Amino acid sequence: MGLGSRVVIIGNSGSGKTTLARELARRERMPLTDLDRVHWQDEVTVKRDEQVAAAMVAELAAQPRWIIEGVYGWLVAVALRNATTLIWLDMPWKVCLAGLNERGPWKGAATAAHEAFLDWAKAYRERTNSTSFAGHQSLFDGFAGAKLRLVTRDEVADFLTKSAKS
């Protein structure tokens, strides 16, 4: 699969989106946007106005080359209008939890906030909004461009190896 010039990476928190996006952006010399930086203002407790966030993503997605990664399905939907490729990291919870534990609290969040975040991430398959398994499944199913669903770390590693040879 050719990577294309406008790539969106989705998945649960801890699935490896940022790691994969950074590697692909480095290799392909493409600008990278983490949707956490769009969704949240200075801290993870202060959400950006949704219209402002959507407009920011639309502006980024109008560029000719980029990688955008994140869990926020409603923002991903904005980017997908211009995307050439969609990659879904559909990892089991134990893999995501290991990734989150390795990363540690985001921006030094307090223990209680981090535990609440872990509970939120664990509920990925039970939630039904756009930032859930069901939301990501809908985005994936509805995307007409090139798409890839990776469900293990080995599949991600194989993808990276094969895409490096392309």
Automatic annotation (TrEMBL):
<keyword id="KW-0547">Nucleotide-binding</keyword>
<protein>
    <submittedName>
        <fullName>ATP-binding cassette domain-containing protein</fullName>
    </submittedName>
</protein>
<dbReference type="InterPro" id="IPR052922">
    <property type="entry name" value="Cytidylate_Kinase-2"/>
</dbReference>
<dbReference type="InterPro" id="IPR027417">
    <property type="entry name" value="P-loop_NTPase"/>
</dbReference>
<dbReference type="GO" id="GO:0005524">
    <property type="term" value="F:ATP binding"/>
</dbReference>
<keyword id="KW-0067">ATP-binding</keyword>
